[in-house]
Write a structure and sequence with these properties.
single chain; mainly alpha; 0% strand; ATP binding; membrane
């Protein structure tokens, strides 16, 4: 019984890996530059919290030093610089998030175009008899509609997974 459970898990794992592989290959074929850009933005967003923690620590130390030294100009300017650095990281976070969302939208649009084009190519290769077949026509229409839904789900489920993976580290 235990062996059967392990075999089931291994089979499901193979299916998940196969699906991820196909999706990533499709993304890469659509636009390798967008995929590289998304990877760079995701890594940047994953590293940003660690930088923010370091800068926050520096801000606290600078302010404490400025208070302890009763407003010595060097310590006050260090505290102000640390505050500006914290603000710069907040702006960088907004820019990286906006860039990532833009590239995700661009990838989704291009992916949608590729899938629609593939469906049109398939429709163009059909004979008149096949095209007049109601069942086949309905399947092609359903594939076109569902491809848009699946692509939307991919955008919101697969792409953020990479960001969540890096954010947890």
């Amino acid at each position: 019984m235990h062996l059967k459970r392990i075999q089931t898990v291994v089979c499901q794992l193979k299916m998940v890996i196969s699906t991820w592989k196909r999706v990533l290959i499709l993304f890469w074929k659509v636009s390798p530059w967008i995929v590289i850009g998304l990877l760079a933005f995701t890594i940047g967003l994953g590293l940003l919290p660690a930088m923010q923690i370091q800068v926050t620590s520096y801000v606290v130390q600078s302010v404490a030093s400025a208070i302890y030294e009763k407003g010595v100009p060097e310590f006050v300017s260090a505290a102000l610089l640390a505050g500006l650095l914290q603000g710069g990281l907040a702006i960088l976070s907004l820019l990286l998030t906006s860039g990532q969302q833009y590239l995700q939208s661009l990838l989704q649009m291009q992916l949608s175009n590729v899938v629609s084009f593939q469906i049109m190519e398939k429709a163009a290769s059909l004979t008149l008899q096949q095209y007049e077949d109601d069942e086949l026509y309905d399947r092609m229409q359903r594939a076109n509609r569902e491809s848009m839904y699946v692509l939307l789900r991919l955008r919101w489920r697969i792409l953020p997974l990479g960001g969540a993976h890096f954010d947890k580290r």
